[in-house]
Specification:
By secondary structure, this protein is α+β, with helices and mostly antiparallel strands. The chain has one domain (2-137): STM4215-like. 24% of the residues lie in helices and 42% in strands. It has helices at 2-11, 70-92, and strands at 21-23, 32-37, 43-46, 52-65, 104-121, 124-137. Strands 1, 2, 3, 4, 5 and 6 form a 6-stranded mixed sheet that branches. The longest helix is centred in the middle third of the chain and has 23 residues, at 70-92. The protein is elongated.
């Protein structure tokens, strides 16, 4: 599965190493993490040989305290900013997710929306950044 490969890839980020990252399920505990599918058009371009250039869009979501204390809110924003920088550098180095299926070849990974506060409730906030992976699918 692509999302599982992306989760493993994100776990290779030194900032997230040792963290538990769920898939499509952000927990209620503080400092919970999740990689979630985001709605998007999957096919970017179709080729006459039947292959296609596709994209998969994800969010890295983080649950943490949300209150008036600046330090609490800055922690997550700094973390997401540093993860964004890491993704940018990995893309330049062509260190991309390992898609085990030989018909799927990753081409790039990039952040499409920087880290931001997505919603708040009962003293916690959901922060997230959005990123996409472009890959070629052969027939």
């Amino acid at each position: 599965m692509i999302i599982d490969a992306v989760r493993e890839y994100m776990l290779s980020c030194p900032l997230l190493a040792g963290k538990k990252i769920n898939i499509n399920c952000l927990g209620t505990k503080m400092r919970s993490f999740s990689i979630d599918n985001a709605a998007s058009e999957s096919v970017i371009k179709k080729y006459c040989d039947g292959s296609s250039l596709k994209q998969a869009v994800f969010t890295l979501a983080v649950r943490d305290r949300y209150d008036e204390k600046l330090n609490e809110n800055l922690y997550v924003m700094k973390l997401l900013e540093e993860v964004e920088d890491w993704i940018y550098k990995q893309n330049i180095l062509k260190n991309l997710p390992n898609l085990a299926d030989g018909n799927l070849v990753p081409r790039s990974i990039e952040v499409t929306k920087s880290g931001h506060l997505h919603d708040t409730s009962m003293g916690s906030g959901r922060w997230q950044l959005e990123f996409k992976m472009v890959y070629k699918q052969s027939v």
